[in-house]
Amino acid sequence: MFECGTDGPRVIVVGVDGSDPSWRAAAYAVGLARRQGALLAMVYVQPVSSMAAVAGISTVTAESDLAAADAICGRMRAGLAGMAEVRALRWEFHRVVGADVVAALSQLADELRADAVVVGASKGLGHRVLGSAAVRLVKARRWPVTVVP
């Protein structure tokens, strides 16, 4: 739906997982959100493994993933605190539990009524079988998707 009177994105969603491409995507999204005056929603998708839940080790996985989410949020907070030009940046951190990164990012982007999604390029081998998250987000055709190498 077209909205009159808006210039650029109001909400930008960026997926972060601690990998180098996701940090580059976050840096790009910070600059875009700062220039546009948009809200930056950083999203860490905490993986859920049904096999781990069946085996009874989901609490260990959940604790380590919570620590990973806290580390990512802390690193982002520390990085932004040292940059005077982004002090006015509005941002929030979301930890979403989900087995499928694309579904989790899509659901949150829909809930936040995101105008853009930014992700890092996949470096793993799994994307050759399942398709990369970036390509699957582009194919969803709901928002402009920027893939940062």
Would you give an account of this structure?
Residues 10-149 form the UspA domain. With 149 residues, this protein is an alpha/beta fold. The protein has a single domain (11-148), classed as Rossmann fold (3-Layer(aba) Sandwich). 47% of the residues lie in helices and 21% in strands. It is built from six helices and five strands. It has a five-stranded parallel sheet with strand order 3-2-1-4-5, with helices on both faces. It is globular.
* Strand order, sheet with most strands: 3-2-1-4-5
Task: Indicate the percent of residues in helices.
Answer: 40-55%
Shape: globular
CATH H-level superfamily: HUPs
Radius of gyration: 16 Å
List segments where confidence is low: pLDDT < 50 over at least 5 consecutive residues: 126-130
Please state the second-level CATH architecture: 3-Layer(aba) Sandwich
Structural class: alpha/beta
According to CATH, what is the topology? Rossmann fold
Number of helical elements:
6
What attributes does this structure have?
alpha/beta, Rossmann fold, 21% strand, Universal_stress_UspA, Rossmann-like_a/b/a_fold
At a glance:
This is Universal stress protein. This protein has a five-stranded parallel beta sheet, sandwiched between helices. It has helices at residues 20-36, 50-55, 58-81, 101-111, 127-130, 133-140; strands at 11-15, 39-47, 91-98, 116-120, 145-148.
Task: Show the helix and strand layout.
Layout lengths: L10 E5 L4 H17 L2 E9 L2 H6 L2 H24 L9 E8 L2 H11 L4 E5 L6 H4 L2 H8 L4 E4 L1
Parallel strand pairs: 1-2, 1-4, 2-3, 4-5
